[in-house]
Amino acid sequence: MQVPILTYHGVNVAGNEYAGNDHVAFAADLELIHALGLRIVPAQWLVDNLLGRAGHDLRRCVVLTCDDGSNFDYYDLDHPEHGSQRSFFNALLDFRRRHGRAAQPDLHLTAFVIADPQARARMDVSCLVGRNWMQQEWWRAAQASGLIGIENHSWDHNHPCLDSPGPHGLARGDFHAVASEEQAEFEITQAQEYIAAQMAPRQPRLFCYPFGHVNDFLSRDWLPRRGPEVGLDAAFGDGATPVNADSDRWNLPRYICGWHWRSPEQLRDTLLAAADVAAA
């Protein structure tokens, strides 16, 4: 098993070219993955195999994720500088219309969302353009579509736009700072409970570290001990390597669009390298 996990951010719109626009990249990457003869599968399949719960054939497979849970994930939006942006969800629908369901029967995107509505409102004003583009009303529809899964990206991302210190003395702007029982419960358990309440009867089972910040307390102590108790199966960081049978379930590596690759050619090389290892 050698499965690369690719990650996108809907708020990354710095133009309308591949290197600066995750929506342009996402649509192009769907076509590239398919042209290479690779299969897109849900992140939960990968985790279930790691935990010995399932035996999915994951040879030559790719997992897709996106972070933060902005409205860009689900809705087409008019960016004030760069015009209409096709959402990740609609890009998936476009791909399915072009190729048919049989082309990628397990097509799926895992969306890691920020839970706290007040924090999302602050981020919308501080980091976007104050148009209420960090809402949650689309979560249930996305989940019901079968194309997107809603998962846990913490309570408030410990975002630098929030007042510091936060609860339990939490210094803002760095998820490495989440290093106590109280802070972990505030950021992760509280988010689990909130997202589960919005998505009932389904609850989130996957967690993604904000900023890709993985510390030893969370990955080696709190999550192995408390994660299963609060309903979590695994956690995702960055790492830029494929997931294999020996990967740490509490720090699964991902490739980040715009960071680990910035062109179709770079992604092609990454995917082919992982596929070659899997084939071998």
UniProtKB/TrEMBL annotation:
It is found in: Secreted. Transmembrane segments: none annotated. The keyword Signal applies. Coiled coil: none annotated. InterPro entries: Glyco_hydro/deAcase_b/a-brl, NODB_dom, Polysacch_Deacetylase. Residues 60-280 form the NodB homology domain. Its main location: secreted. It holds the Pfam family Polysacc_deac_1. Gene3D superfamilies: Glycoside hydrolase/deacetylase. Keywords: Signal. This is Polysaccharide deacetylase family protein. The lineage of its organism: Bacteria, Pseudomonadati, Pseudomonadota, Gammaproteobacteria, Lysobacterales.
